[in-house]
């Protein structure tokens, strides 16, 4: 007989230990069983399934972590009382969640296993005790004698560890099958035919370790299933009720009104549905350290008597934005849980995203000034500054006016922002910063239908000052690129000649530092292009404030930048005027 099971995910509790999930016996007219599970937060959860949805019967408050959960009761009665072991304590609950028992054993170690059959049997790492009427039975009886019945080979270890076992007639052939849950997440069903070895009839792979397993009827009356509890607390059933059933001739599958509305809404979404990427940005950004963006797995050391391994997945990516380009960066995160979900995190890329707050600036630098006047409130202009610059508190500062200082983390240029009701003043030694602020603030004021009176004072000396800040970085990156391009040729020459003693010291140093040069070049692949872009923006912004379009001269500027000296670059800026 072929086994065909359909997966159903019911709910998730906290992290669970081995054998902490059981099915209560069916009671009354209902043939379905309720599920009781205990987690390491100390919470006992009991729930049943009604109309396909889990309904909580009771849920206890958090406490010490639960190491075992068993069912018990009086002789010849349904075993529906819940007994849990927490540390060295045993507690009992009714099927309604009322605690009726709590006693402390004399064990100095935590209880590792427990069985309740009128008597309470508890086992720690080294001791075995029996309790009757809540009193230890024969405490001075000495060692327990063990008699050998059959000699078998001892297996000390095996590749696929078994964490839980149960028996249940899932095939309904009158013979119980063996249900096995393994450490690697594999659920297996074995059947026994006469005296032969067990035969694997079905297997299913879950995404994590299976801590508890039991067969019964949980989801729907008349359909047996195998219920498994995973390490992270997911209660998953493999039921004999198939998700789709074929109807006979003339039969139609009737759907509830709620199900029909859900299907209709999903059909409307299916035509426009797409699989989003991991990272999505409205604006161009540079991804740094791309070769190191794989997942990093970290394992923490555990005590020798605790079989627990913690795993942490981490994704690292460095992103550099371009000032003046602003939008939203979206990260799609898919946690390793069941059922599969996706979380979307949004990060705003601000117009001046490379600026950071600082306590003071150098007022002796040549500054360009942007003045704003209009019918706007203090809160409105503060919201504009929050939109443009990072590290600015969203709440409006107290007082009539406020001043913030910023520094560009890439170039080292500075920005001073002072504003009050109806007036704002922005000063920077970089014309491009003033140009970005002018464009963005004008657009934000237009959205709110606020008229702005914009004036500016451009200091020509600031252009020379900014070029002097950029040129050392440009010269270093050009020299680095030149050295990297020579490495392959020098290495080939070294192989052919056998040594490099005949090379000049400059080329020998390139060979000696080849690995460091390549590593540095990989870390900032677009660094040189970024500097070219900043110089080009500076050139365009300088003449934009004069009302002159110089984009036709940009190709000449790019030709000049290759191996260009600082004085020649400054002369080109001045000659273009």
UniProtKB/TrEMBL annotation:
Domain BBS7 GAE stretches: 278-347
Domain BBS7 helical hairpin stretches: 460-573
GO CC entries: axoneme; BBSome; ciliary basal body; membrane; neuron projection
Coiled-coil spans in chain: 476-524
Domain of life: Eukaryota
InterPro entries cross-referenced by the UniProt entry: BBS7_GAE_dom, BBS7_hairpin, BBS7_pf_dom, Beta-prop_BBS7, Quinoprotein_ADH-like_sf
Regions that span the bilayer: none
Domain BBS7 platform intervals: 355-457
BBS7 beta-propeller domain location: 21-123, 160-240
Keyword Coiled coil appears in the UniProt entry: yes
One of the GO BP terms on file: intracellular protein localization
Keywords: Coiled coil
Keyword Coiled coil annotated: yes
Protein name: Bardet-Biedl syndrome 7
Species annotation: Pavo cristatus (Indian peafowl)
